[in-house]
Every structure is written in structure tokens, then in C-alpha cells.
Amino acid sequence: MTPDKAGASDGGGATGRGAGPVAPCDGPLEPYRTGAQATRPVAAPPVSSDLAIHLHAVRKQYQDHVAVRDLSLAVPRGTVYGLLGPNGAGKTSTIRMLMHIIAPDAGTIEVLGRPASDPGLTDRVGYLPEERGLYRKMRVRDVLAFLARLKGVPRREVGPRIDAWLERFQLRGQGADWSTARVDELSRGMQQKVQFIGALLHDPELVILDEPFSGLDPVNAQALKDTVLDLRARGRTVVFSTHVMENAERMCDAVCIIARGEKVLDGTVASVRDAHASRLVSLTFETTPEGAVLDILQDPASVRRAPLASRHLEVELHDHIDAGPYVQRLPGAAEPAPHLPRTRRHAARRDGDAWPWLSRSSSRSSRASTSSAYARGGSWRPRC
């Protein structure tokens, strides 16, 4: 278990119905502070009513590992917002703090204009955790009805809502009815759709999805994407985490890229692509770089901040440095391959760490491989 996965819930995200509404807070939120952070002052700026989520200087540490470091971000209402980054970047820890499953060590979190710890938020937020979990011996309709009642859906509305969602996701109708099947009789993809339905039955204002497309086939993944876009059209706010940039590029209004617990950049999709696509280079090596390769990676004349020696690293270049020639300086780097077949580009994008907005090179023994499916050096531009 990685530190970012600590505190995992195996209950599938079902929580009891929260208490009634509480009086609104006057003035800025009192920041969370514990332990060594107790004396650290954090001044929270005024929060706009147009924001669905606002984080200011949030920090979370597990023993000696800092999972989230001074993270600040703002999510406007009625948008689709992507949290992006490689595995272990801090995305799940951030989402669990939003849901108040874990508390931050420092900083302030406000959700829908209230502190994240406010129990009145329970029925206003829908949550799909990374760990898929349903009551496996219950029938699909029964478990969905149970989740709907937990979220305060009136009893007379439970059945019609379940039927509508099951038909939308092809779990009922056309000669098939999986609503009477036990959860453990469903495929993994079907179970994931059932849990996704459970997060939406109470018609939440804010929907938070942790790696929602993981493990889904293309047809079911598209059904989830269509639903996310429909939610936005109805004025709902959707936040989802992913390490596949193609999903964010096609769906999100704005994104925040996180690496090693820190925000690398954020903004609208267009502004991030235009301002930063050629400045960031993601590199993968089969062995930890050293010698001449490490000297190039840490050259202060080319990079803004020298990365630590690692098999997987990101390099931020100075504004006057072009990514293509920089990658070609690495010993053994191949020529840029703009003609790389589309199928191979797509395969690289589906890789766990493939971010198509970023240039990527792969190497063997600290050398760039000429047979890699990655971009083989040079800039890798996204499809627009």
C-alpha cells in the first residue's frame, strides 16, 4: 500500500445521512492545524460564492511522506474539473480530504460554500471512490435502494430513479434485467456502473469521481463520459481524477496537474495546453539516469528546477528552450517521430504515466530507445 492509498475505505463510499443544515460561517474558515503545523499561520482568502470547491494551502502527511504539499485550487460551479497526475501524486488523498474521510494537517477546505467537515454536505455530494465496493450478496435493485435512502431520496421516488438509471446504462431492458441479479454475479464493469449510479441517485450538486474510467471497456467508459457531460449541462459540478490526459482534454473545462504532492500547473484546458505544453517534458528510463544524462537533466541553463535522479521524472524547461532539441541532447535519443502511427500514439496514451500534453522519451540503460511507442523525443502535441 502506498502512502497515498492509506486510509482506504472498503465500503464503496456509502455513508450515513448527515445532520440537518447548520448556520453559515461568519468570516474566513479556521484552518486545520495539527502537530508540528499548529503554529503555522495560514490566512484563507475570501471565498467566492461561484466556487464549488476551494482549497487553500492544504497539506497532508503520512509519517515521513508528504502526500499533498501546500495545495491551493478553486473549482467554479457548473464545470468539469480534472485532477491529473501519475500514480501516487496525491490525487486520492486530495479527494478524501474533500470528502472529509481524512482531515488535512494544515490549510482550509470549503465545499459548496461550507467547511468540508460540515455534515450537512452529505446529501449534496455524490462520491465514487477509487476502491470499488458494493454489498456483493445483495441484489442490484436492493443495494441501489439502500444507497438512495441513505442519501435522503423520498421512498416514492427511489424505484423510478433506479429504473431510469439502469435503463440508461443498459442494465435493464432489451430483454435483460440485471436489477434482480446479485452484485457478485455481475462483471467488474457492470459493478462499476452500479456504483456510479449509486453516486448519482440523489441528484447531487457536486459529483466527485476517483479514477472513474479505470477498468472500463470503451463502450462503458463512453457512457460514463456522456453522463458527466450531461451533468455539466444541468449545472452540476463534476471533479474527477485520472492519469490519462486524453480524458481530461476531451471533457474538462479546467485541470490541475499534481506531481509528488505539489501543484505543477492549473487553469483552463486551452490555457494550460498553450502556455505549458512545450515547457514540460516527461521522461521514462529503464535505469536511473547518471553521468552525462543526469548532467543534461539538471542543466540550470535549460531547466527551471533540477529533478532528482529517478526512472520517471518531469522536467520544466526555461521559456527559451525548445523541448525537441533538448530531448535530442540525451545520449542515444532518436529523431523526433511526427509520423508515429496513430494507433501507437494511442497505445502510449493509455500507458499508466502517459500524458499526451507532455513530451516523452524512453531510454534503455539511460539512453532513449528508438523502438519505444512513446514520442521518441520532440514535442508531442494533443489532438484538438
Structural commentary:
By secondary structure, this protein is α/β, with parallel strands linked by helices. It has 2 domains: 3-271, Rossmann fold; 277-363, no CATH class. The protein is 26% helix and 23% strand. The chain is built from 10 helices and 16 strands. It has a 6-stranded mixed sheet, with helices on both faces. Helix 2 packs across helix 3 (155-168). The protein is elongated. It starts with 31 loop residues before the first strand and ends in a 21-residue tail after the last strand.
Indicate the overall shape: elongated
Overall number of strands: 16
Going by CATH, the homologous superfamily of the largest domain would be: P-loop containing nucleotide triphosphate hydrolases
Task: Give the low-confidence spans.
Answer: 1-43, 334-384
Radius of gyration, CA atoms, in whole angstroms = 22 Å
Strand order of the largest sheet: 7-10-11-4-12-13
Helix percentage range? 25-40%
Number of helices: 10
- What's the number of structural domains? 2
Roughly what is the average pLDDT, rounded to an integer?
75
CATH architecture annotation name of the largest domain: 3-Layer(aba) Sandwich
Give the N-to-C terminal Cα separation.
Answer: 37 Å
Q: Would you tell me the structural class of the helices and strands? A: alpha/beta
Secondary-structure element series? EEEEHEEEHHEEHEHEHEEHEHEHHE
Instruction: Estimate what percentage of residues fall within beta strands.
Output: 15-25%
CATH topology of the largest domain: Rossmann fold
The major beta sheet can be summarized as: 6 strands, mixed
The CATH class of the largest domain turns out to be Alpha Beta
